[in-house]
UniProtKB/TrEMBL annotation:
Taxonomic superkingdom: Eukaryota
The species this protein was found in: Chiloscyllium punctatum (Brownbanded bambooshark)
GO molecular function: nucleic acid binding; rRNA (adenine-N6-)-methyltransferase activity
Family: Belongs to the methyltransferase superfamily. PrmA family.
PROSITE patterns: N6_MTASE (PS00092)
CDD domains membership: AdoMet_MTases (cd02440)
Protein's name according to its UniProt entry: Methyltransferase-like protein 5
Pfam families: MTS
Domain Methyltransferase small: 46-145
Family matches, as Gene3D superfamilies: Vaccinia Virus protein VP39
InterPro entries referenced in this protein's UniProt entry, alphabetically: DNA_methylase_N6_adenine_CS, rRNA_MeTrfase/Polyamine_Synth, SAM-dependent_MTases_sf, Small_mtfrase_dom
PANTHER family: RRNA N6-ADENOSINE-METHYLTRANSFERASE METTL5
Length: 211
């Protein structure tokens, strides 16, 4: 299979369906095709952490990161999400692209089930809930679980405003943390309480690896 170029990957990811009725409590915001493509392409070309690798995608939603990783020749991508509706859309997306190297599991990522998957994946990629509104601290729960499940590295998006806190935690957990890029995450108005059509949030794209 020929190697996809970044522009081709982004163009394909624009065809991925997203949430029909996003759930506020689950902080369901889609990762844009632009951000997803750049994240995955960097993981693939700079760190060689996708091709032929076993990849977990925590809080996968409608599956844009898993689908993109599968297109970059991951060995297998497994998406984990609590929401059946999101996984139904994810499944439709996988069928649409006729991808054989994607699977999905419905579960609460923060539950005990994920403990059984310690060091089961080469790479974890995720856009976890940012831990706003009613979910304070959930971003760090996702990160701790991801680090337990990964053998090589975890790639994740976090609000830039939490960088110092995450840095302290990384030191405490003896994990190497590298901010690969600073992004502007464009959140379009998905919920009734959003007054503006879209809002920019400053987000770090971080690679965590084991020292």
């Amino acid at each position: 299979m020929k190697r996809l170029k970044l522009k081709e990957l982004e163009s394909l990811l624009q065809r991925v369906d997203v949430f029909e009725q996003p759930k506020l409590l689950l902080e369901q915001y889609p990762t844009s095709p632009h951000i997803a493509a750049h994240m995955l392409y960097t993981i693939h070309t700079t760190f060689d952490d996708i091709e032929s690798k076993l990849i977990g995608d925590l809080g996968c939603g409608c599956g844009v990161l898993s689908i993109g990783a599968a297109m970059l020749d991951a060995g297998l991508c497994v998406g984990f999400d609590i929401d059946e509706g999101a996984l139904n859309i994810f499944n439709r997306n996988v069928e649409e692209f006729e991808l054989a190297n994607v699977d999905m599991v419905q579960c609460d990522v923060c539950s005990a089930m994920t403990n059984k998957l310690s060091k089961a994946f080469d790479t974890i990629i995720m856009n976890p809930p940012f831990g706003t509104k009613h979910n304070k601290g959930v971003d760090m729960k996702f990160l701790k679980i991801a680090l337990d499940m990964a053998r090589t590295a975890v790639y994740s998006l976090h609000k830039t405003s939490t960088r110092n806190h995450i840095q302290k935690k990384a030191e405490e957990w003896k994990i190497k943390m590298e901010v690969i890029a600073e992004l502007r995450y464009d959140l379009s108005a998905s919920y009734k309480f959003h007054k503006k059509k879209s809002i920019d949030i400053e987000v770090d794209f971080i690679r965590f690896s084991f020292k």
